[in-house]
Amino acid sequence: DKLRPLQRTEIIFLSTRQRCPASPVIFTLALEPLACAIRNNQNITGITLFNYDFKANLYADDILLTLSRPTLSVPHLMKLISDFSTFFGYKINWFKSEAISLNRLTHPSHLNSIPVAWRSEGMRYLGVNIRSPIDSIFESNGPKLLKTIRDDLNRWTNLPLSLWGRAEVLKMNVLPKLAFLFSAIPLEIPQKWFIEIDKSFSLFLRKGKKPRIGRKKLVVPRNKGGLGTQDVYAHYLSYNESRLKARLCNHVNSFFIFISQVKTN
């Protein structure tokens, strides 16, 4: 079918009505030229992985920049943002902006007096604590999430729920929190952390009593006689495998070799 021309042209000025459902979409479309300009600017260098230069990560009105060579990248970034603001009316609240170092070679002096807060202890982005070195990111998020889940399950233990209802609580209220952590932090997570999660699940299912059914039987699908509870470790592996498959799609053999080694270990 042929595309029909628009019957009416909509003119959008500098703002939309409050609570307008189209506002986030319009803002995303308006911000995309800035993101494209940052990615295409050769003087703004990011972190190269899998032959891709990671520079800008956008989510709604939050922008996360991962830059290298700050003495070169930061001045060109500031000029690009200034030009974009001049033409589009876009403004950044620099006093709410934060910066951290991903290694020991970057210092606040490299920011060229940009009025951003330097966080040596790390910063929080989309609910995830980010800090340096990268290996310590899980320690800043995993134990806190485990405590939150335990507190929630302890508070819900005395609710008049059946065994099936408790399984649904784990699926609907707890698993999304874990899935967000797995998707946001593609790092190695200690096995003992998953053991603690499974213990909390078992105690909640049995109302704090000693489990009578093994965890392996509880995760069996319901159509095969199990309870259909979630295998958290399997979800963790699936998130990481999906990333590997996306990045190594041109290297299928090495991908399957790596996965087989992970399962063997």
Any descriptors?
265 residues, mainly alpha, 2 domains, 8 helices, 8 strands
Draw up the topology in text.
Blueprint: H1 23-40, E1 47-49, E2 52-54, E3 56-59, E4 62-65, H2 70-88, E5 98-99, E6 117-118, E7 123-125, E8 128-130, H3 137-156, H4 163-184, H5 191-205, H6 215-218, H7 232-247, H8 252-264
Shape estimate: elongated
Largest sheet: 2 strands, antiparallel
Write down the domain tally. 2
Strand content: 5-15%
Spatial order of the strands in the main sheet?
Answer: 1-2
Distance between the termini: 53 Å
The total count of strands amounts to 8
Characterization of the model:
This protein is mainly alpha-helical and 265 residues long. The protein folds into two domains: 126 residues, no CATH class; 111 residues, no CATH class. 48% of the residues lie in helices and 9% in strands. The chain has eight helices and eight strands; from the N terminus they run H-E-E-E-E-H-E-E-E-E-H-H-H-H-H-H. Helix 3 runs parallel beside helix 5. The longest helix has 22 residues. The N and C termini lie far apart (53 Å). The C terminus is likely disordered.
